[in-house]
Amino acid sequence: PFVVTDNCVKCKYTDCVDVCPVDCFYEGPNVLVINPDECIDCALCDSQCPAQAIYSEDDVPPEQVHYIELNAELAEKWADNNITEMKDPLPDAKKWDGVPDKLKYLEH
Ligand code: SF4
Ligand code: F3S
């Protein structure tokens, strides 16, 4: 499956959800995650993310591998918050885009 990683936190641009053919993105307060059991590996979403936060599981950078498990956990926790339509990014998305190590800010 594909995985949403650190740079989505506090940005949440949501361009990714528009292209997903199986609607497998789930929304938390300041990040999205992908349900790995539903993702069909179509690879349509990663190029759409302005923050370049989406990777195929095999290509997740080593310092971000914890996001693989986190996507699975949070997709379950946020199962009622399926998101299928793009909306406005978080207000300070531009400011946070590219800031490293945002895990501590991830609200869940
Ligand atoms: Fe959806 Fe395809 Fe991205 Fe998986 S790879 S989350 S199926 S758009
Ligand atoms: Fe996040 Fe990128 Fe989607 S910032 S909400 S993974 S477009």
How would you characterize the overall build of this protein?
The protein is an alpha+beta fold and 108 residues long. It has one domain: Alpha-Beta Plaits (2-Layer Sandwich), CATH 3.30.70. It is built from 3 helices and 4 strands. The chain has helices at residues 15-19, 66-77, 93-96; strands at 2-4, 25-27, 32-34, 54-56. The longest helix has 12 residues, at 66-77. It is globular, with a radius of gyration of 12 Å. Bound molecules: iron/sulfur cluster (SF4) and FE3-S4 cluster (F3S). Iron/sulfur cluster binds next to loops.
What's this model, at a glance?
By secondary structure, this protein is α+β, with helices and mostly antiparallel strands. The chain has helices spanning 15-19, 66-77, 93-96; strands at residues 2-4, 25-27, 32-34, 54-56. It has one domain: Alpha-Beta Plaits, CATH 3.30.70.20.
Shape: globular
CATH class: Alpha Beta
The CATH architecture would be: 2-Layer Sandwich
User: Describe the biggest sheet?
Assistant: 2 strands, antiparallel
Count all strands and give the number. Answer: 4
Question: Helices, strands, pairings?
Answer:
Elements: E1 2-4, H1 15-19, E2 25-27, E3 32-34, E4 54-56, H2 66-77, H3 93-96
The structure holds iron/sulfur cluster and FE3-S4 cluster.
InterPro entries: 4Fe4S_Fe-S-bd, 4Fe4S_Fe_S_CS, 7Fe_ferredoxin, Fd_C, FdxA, RnfB_subfamily
Keywords: 3Fe-4S, 4Fe-4S, Electron transport, Iron, Iron-sulfur, Metal-binding, Repeat, Transport
Cofactor: [3Fe-4S] cluster; [4Fe-4S] cluster
